[in-house]
Write a structure and sequence with these properties.
Protein name: Citrate synthase
Strand content: under 5%
CATH architecture of the largest domain: Orthogonal Bundle
Largest sheet: 3 strands, antiparallel
GO molecular function: citrate synthase activity
Number of helices: 16
CATH topology of the largest domain: Citrate Synthase, domain 1
Strand order of the largest sheet: 1-2-3
Keywords: Transferase, Tricarboxylic acid cycle
Radius of gyration: 22 Å
Organism: Deinococcus irradiatisoli
Family: Belongs to the citrate synthase family.
Oligomer: single chain
Structural class: mainly alpha
Order of helices and strands: EEEHHHHHHHHHHHHHHHH
CATH superfamily of the largest domain: Citrate Synthase, domain 1
Shape: globular
CATH class of the largest domain: Mainly Alpha
């Protein structure tokens, strides 16, 4: 008998210097540095550089990298026109998938697969993903698309393009932290999909479009949107415990709770919980946060002993909501952050590339012969 690793769980297929996860102890590091330290001390720009180069930058290297990102934020005019014409009723991830593919049509390096070309394209895509997502959001609401500003940080510029007004420093920093927390997470479904595409020596844009398609699913990138749907369904904090106990009694899935890897607290959720609480206190203890507090306590009391705890999606939705980001754009925001990890993982894997070609155990019929159509029952 051949043992099948369902969902490829526990299967090792490559090596990486970028991200380490110990799900039993709730540890996540990038380049050996705990995620809590990245969130507290760093920026999305710095972490993006670190992932792409597998090292911390010097001040000069970071300044150069940041300048390159700022210089590449503009989208081709034709793409802006296309985004403005997208149907308003499609899911934003559909729009992002199409826009990312369209973007490749205007890149003269699009078909190049050398490491240098992949790196140059990565810088452009990291810079332009935020512009595309903000443009899609504005167009979806029937609002004029806002051009990027080179004088703002990556996080502040996105919020400016999305809302049409400059965010406060605190809002920009909170969003920056959220991007840092989501930038990379090992061999998750979307990163693996990007690598699988790249292993065929396909182009970088095809790799990223593949990753977007994987991220779109509710079991991966769409979970934080589902959490907000759950909060709306609960309605008020006093109904939260009864609602969750009912779900647990019926053995129904609770969105934002549990993780394939973590059998302890997701360290990213601990960081986001603190910031969600901070924002809620500023706003007079928001309704959403009170519901989340009750859900977390109920879940831990009932099934925490089984290693099931809130994950990063549990609190990220409330943070995004407090920043004025529409619920249907939570998954595209995930892509805005994860583009760095996708690009870095593709570049790292293709240095020692091998075409991914898993196998399956055949369970169909044997010793069969073709039956002419007229003789079939």
């Amino acid at each position: 008998m051949t043992e099948i690793a369902k969902g490829l769980e526990g299967v090792l297929f490559t090596e990486s210097k970028l991200t380490f996860i110990n799900g039993t102890e709730g540890i996540l590091t990038h380049l050996g540095i705990p995620i809590q330290e990245w969130a507290e001390n760093s920026t999305f720009e710095e972490l993006s550089y670190a992932l792409l180069h597998a090292k911390l930058p010097s001040a000069a290297e970071l300044a150069k990298f940041d300048a390159e990102l700022r210089a590449n934020r503009e989208l081709p005019a034709k793409l802006v026109e296309e985004i403005a014409s997208f149907p308003a009723n499609v899911h934003p991830m559909q729009a992002l998938r199409t826009a990312a593919s369209y973007l490749g049509l205007f890149d003269p390096q699009a078909e190049e697969t050398s490491e240098g070309a992949r790196y140059a394209i990565s810088i452009r895509m990291i810079a332009q993903f935020s512009t595309m997502i903000a443009a899609i959001a504005r167009a979806r609401r029937g609002e004029a698309i806002v051009a990027p500003r080179a004088d703002l940080t990556h996080a502040a510029n996105f919020l400016y393009m999305l809302r049409g007004e400059e965010p406060t420093p605190e809002q920009a920093r909170l969003f920056d932290i959220a991007l840092v927390l989501h930038a990379d997470h090992g061999m998750n479904a979307s990163t693996f999909t990007a690598i699988a595409t790249s292993s065929t020596l396909s182009d970088m844009y095809s790799c990223m479009v593949s990753a977007i398609g994987a991220l779109k699913g509710p079991l991966h990138g769409g979970a934080n949107e589902a959490v907000m749907d759950m909060l709306d369904e609960v309605g008020t904090p006093d109904k939260a415990a009864e609602y969750i106990n009912g779900k647990l009694d019926r053995k129904e899935k609770i969105m934002g709770v549990g993780h394939r890897v973590y059998k302890n607290f997701d360290p990213r959720s601990r960081v986001l919980r603190d910031y969600a609480e901070h924002v809620a206190n500023q706003q007079g203890k928001s309704n959403y946060y009170q519901i989340l507090e009750t859900i977390e306590k109920t879940v831990i009391d009932r099934i925490g002993s089984k290693g099931i705890y809130p994950n990063v999606d549990f609190y990220s939705g409330t943070v995004y909501s407090d920043l004025g980001i529409p619920k249907e754009f939570f998954t595209p925001i995930f892509a805005l952050a994860r583009i760095s990890g996708w690009c870095a993982s593709v570049i790292e894997y293709t240095r020692d590339n091998r075409l991914l070609r898993p196998d399956a155990v055949y369970t169909g019929a044997t010793d069969q012969h073709y039956v002419d159509l007229k003789d079939r029952q």
